[in-house]
Design brief:
mainly beta, Methylamine Dehydrogenase, Chain H, 2 domains, four-stranded antiparallel beta sheet, 2 helices, 39 strands, disordered C terminus
Length: 492
Amino acid sequence: MALAVLAGLAVLPALQAAAHTGPGHGRAGHHARTALPEGGPHAAAAATTGPFAYVANTASNTVSVIDTATNTLTKLIPVGTAPFAVAITPDGGRAYVTNRGSGTVSVIETATNTVTTTVGVGASPEGVVVAPDHTRVYITNTVGNSVSVIEIANNTVIDTINLDHASPVGVAINSDANRVYVAHLSGVVSVIETAGDTVATTIPVGDQPFGVAITPNDASVYVTNFGADSVSVIDTASNSVSATIPVQPGPQGVAITPDGTRAYVTDQSTDAVYVIATGSNTVTDAVPVSHHPVGVAITPDGTRAYVTNNGSNNVSVIDTATNTVTTTITLPDGSDPEGVAITPAVPGPPPPPPVAASLTATDATFARKGRTSTFSRMTATLTDGTTGIPRQTVVFTSGSTGRGTVLCRVKTSGQGVAVCTSYTAPDSRTAGRVADDLRAYGYTATYTPNGGTPVTAHATAVPAHHPCNDGKEHGHCDSKEHGPHRASCPMG
């Protein structure tokens, strides 16, 4: 899965899933069951501050919680059928778990380690990543050939992105939350632009690409090719493969250290984790672990890597300074651990605050050329009544209802201002429909507080050559004649 480093945010795991006939579906051995601590499931957690590792146990339908300060199991959380991957919100407050056997996502509140919500998604959900801006969760549906988009504020699916290529598995998102990278077992990586939830391009890589991770500077994407015994490195500036690193057969999970200097890759055939120096894109070390390693996640300080060993029901802890296993944590018998994620040590950027917010929008103009529309003065300002609210996400949509085509998804500046500059449609038909909607109904800016009610603002949007702009600095049309959502000037 993805890896995003943001204001000290933990490196989340790179493990994603594969189809039932592909990688990541090994069988575990038999080990003695590990007892939970005396005093109940939260006894150990109460005595430490974590971070905590969340491990998806696909055979036992549970998630194990490990206190990384003591490397002890503190809780087993029942979830859906065949849980596979885990992602954690930037503030560490929630863990999202894909249940490939039940077509759902379990939402765990980490404060209580209980499932508070179950969200229905597509067929065989496996990969999962949380947007760094705390607004959305992206789920790959391996059998459904789609990506489900969950809005964090209300834990509902707000979009389903249909993909042209089969078997999407691994998924990652960059730190700006504007691009999602999806690995398909069919041999490509899809690049999704989050502004419109559309596929911008596909990149051929090796056979059966599986795990995906992005460097902290967003410059490179590392993709494990399970069937090609290699790791592809994608240059995000050109969206092309810039290097191919040979490894041993069966690479699966991948995670990158917070400083971006090393990638850790799990390999099933050799029961090892390979260490890649990202500066030279060469393998510099191989760390023996237990049987059938799959998932890998790195602690926020970059000092340890946690590796799930599906074939031996345990988790190996690697000291990244020496690249040796210092601890092996035994999980309950029959767990078959797969995905792993680690909570941030320091809270990341706060989720949108549930304050009484006010949103205003400015009348805009636009110019269309082919599939792309560029905007002037499409601006929204978010305040608490007097002061701008920074670092919150405002969504710009065509039309007057807030349910139109998503044009931009932008964070507010330090003064609470968000600016939408352009939109590129997936095809000319959509581009024409969006332009018609803008001319007739303008645009809507929407801000959704965490757990609160969406706040919207509507404004006009007319073509740059429109008669409404003649002699008018802001291109404002009097909407009184045709109601609240229609400009009175003739359509240009």
